[in-house]
Write a structure and sequence with these properties.
This protein is α/β, with parallel strands linked by helices. The protein has six helices and eleven strands. Strand 3, helix 2 and strand 4 form a beta-alpha-beta unit. The longest helix is centred in the middle third of the chain and has 17 residues.
């Protein structure tokens, strides 16, 4: 089993988290760090993927700003999505040259992590061919969007745990008209602490990705932010 750094960023704005991903992605491509997995919760943000259509954002930029929602164009695949409080995000920065260079298998793995995580709470979700992510009969519960350069991944998955607010109402999720996003808490009809789901998600990720996580503390992240190398 390979080791991977595990960094929990807590709740963070999208811009700093993206900058950290990009820096770690570059270091991983250069072989200066091992595989890294980030877990976090974003402040409200709408991201627009490479094939995104900004017409799928239903509110004006001024109205979004009034609600404290940022908008970011990003390099991941896919259309428009929302991240915000009550959603658990996992960004694996992995070198797929050591994993068979199989993008479909990697997307399958991200979906499998969410399937196993929700199952730990008694909720069964399924894949929907042609639409990356996981679905419950009442709506979409988790999304997948990735970017791969030189066979190193970034971005990843987002699992709706207890969205407050449910910012998917401000967009056409993934560009699918009529699509509805739901939370795990909606399905089980009770509040679920994000920390409990985070533990289940990490366990599923370690198993599916075949890694042993090495926690990285805040002092190492501070060193990175000051320009020092992680590792």
């Amino acid at each position: 089993m390979n080791a991977a750094l595990c960094i929990d960023l807590g709740r963070i704005r999208y811009g700093p988290a993206l900058a950290l991903q990009q820096r770690l992605h570059a270091l991983r491509r250069e072989g200066k760090v091992p595989d890294v997995v980030l877990t976090l919760e974003h402040d409200p943000v709408i991201t627009v993927g490479r094939s995104g259509n900004e017409e799928h954002i239903l509110l004006s930029r001024d109205e979004l700003a009034r609600r404290g929602v940022e908008v970011f164009p990003v390099e991941r695949g896919g259309d428009v999505t929302y991240h915000g409080p009550g959603q658990l995000v996992l960004y694996p920065i992995l070198d797929l040259r050591e994993r068979g260079r199989d993008l479909r298998r990697f997307v399958w793995a991200l979906e499998e992590i969410m399937i196993r995580t929700t199952r730990a709470f008694g909720v069964e979700v399924h894949r929907r061919p042609g639409f990356p992510g996981v679905w419950h009969e009442s709506g979409k519960l988790g999304a997948v969007g990735i970017h791969v350069r030189h066979w190193v991944t970034m971005h990843g998955l987002a699992l709706n745990v207890d969205l407050k607010p449910n910012g998917f109402q401000w967009i056409v999720p993934c560009g699918i008209a009529g699509a509805k996003a739901v939370s795990l808490a909606d399905v089980v009809d009770r509040p679920i602490p994000l920390a409990r789901v985070k533990g289940a998600l990490r366990a599923a990720a370690a198993d599916v990705l075949g890694v042993g996580f090495v926690p990285v503390g805040g002092e190492v992240i501070a060193e990175w932010r000051s320009g020092c190398r992680i590792g």
